[in-house]
Amino acid sequence: MFQNNLEFAKKCDVEDSLSHFRDQFHIPKNPAGEELIYLCGNSLGLQPKITSEYIKKELEDWANLGVEGHTEAEHPWLPYHEFLTQSMAKLVGAKPNEVVIMNTLTTNLHLMMVSFYQPTKTKYKIIVESDAFPSDKYAVESQLRFHGFDPKEGLVLWKPRKGEELCRFEDLEEIMEKQGDEIALLMIGNTNYYSGQSFPLKKITELGHKYGCMVGFDLAHGAGNIEPGLHDTGADFAVWCSYKYLNSGPGSLGGCFVNERHAHNKDLKRFTGWWGHNKQTRFNMRHEFDLLPGAEGWQLSNPPILSMAAIRASLDTFEKAGFENLRKKSIKLTGYLEFLVDNLNDDRINIITPRNPEERGCQLSIQVISADKSLHTKLTEAGVISDWREPDVIRIAPVPLYNSFEDVYHFAQRLKEILN
Questions:
Q1: pLDDT in tens, 325-356
Q2: Which of 85, 87, 118, 348 could in theory staple to 315 by disulfide, Cβ–Cβ 3.0 to 4.6 A?
């Protein structure tokens, strides 16, 4: 199927119906003006060229309209988040009333745990995967402490077996069999940032609910990368950022999913703010808090419009490409990367990401035995923007919106030269 030569890579790009989207992104260049091989969309996605237009429009409306822009701007600021809902819901496989763009990822995670982590003296533990992104682990530990529990007792780690890099579902089942009566919440990163392993969300949700637990997911490395199908999983909640695969700019707003079965539950504990209040009476200022149904009811503040404009630009690009098309290309593009890395025939190299495309997104985590960060430095000097994770892993993420088969081929060639 695949061939290890430049002509084949170029042929794949010519045949790729999505290849023209690359021209719609700013590709970083070296001082000589040559495009770098950017394979780091799992840390920060590239900027769509239309983003500056979308932000400029809001700046113009602010300059020309002042406060009246809340209602009179071309895209009025009061309901601005609603312009994002349909597209974002489609990307994560949710209903529009289950999704809202607000805050940043860890803030949203805390807000969700206020509502969905309700421990008792005997059922208080939280499960995370052992190599969860540090911010998730810190947030969970702080929630345990806030409720008066020792994180050393209350945090349960779903670990790979000794000598392995990936988590096995049957090991999670065993944890639940032994400790299910003590576990209140499963909070799993749906696609692990380090290994690239994508977990079976529906199976995890069903397992957690079987033992009376709440279930939530962090889609920071899933949204815009895999098809999570959040509504169908039955998960209680999910959170994600928008600056990785969703290309909305550094530190941009995050997303939040709340399953529709919780949409009208006013008894759920939550931290509230005025943007979660009934839209019809929000500006009366004299009413008692009147909770909005659905995910919108977790909003706190009026949102930063410039960040939302960047998100709208990205989502419009996704709409044009079609996520099913992107996912098909992603499977082929990452498959080609896997083929090329295998063809290096270097015993020092081990791909720790699952080989099954259904168990991963676009990222491959490539372990180079006995390597240190100098390998990453040499790749950078060779014009490859990638990501290094201690102790010996390079994370490579060919993003289907803007990466090419030729990018992947040149990366493999430069890695080979450096290793040799």
A1: 999 999 999 999 999 999 999 999 999 999 99
A2: 87
CA dist., res. 70 & res. 277, Å (int): 17
Q: How confident is the model at residue 285 (pLDDT cuts 50, 70, 90)?
A: confident
Q: Do residues 184 and 119 lie in contact, with contact meaning Cβ atoms separated by under 8 Å?
A: yes
Q: What are phi and psi of 42, to 5 degrees?
A: -75, -10
| Neighbour tally for 34: CB within 10 Å | 9
* Radius of gyration, alpha carbons of the chain: 22
pLDDT single digits (tens) 12-26: 999 999 999 999 999
Q: How many angstroms separate the Cα of 170 from the Cα of each of 185, 212, 419?
A: 18, 19, 37
Domains of the chain listed by start with CATH number: 6-35+322-419 (3.90.1150.10), 56-318 (3.40.640.10)
- The string of DSSP codes covering 324-362 is HHHHHHHHHHHHHHHHHHHTT--TTEEE-S-SSGGGB-S
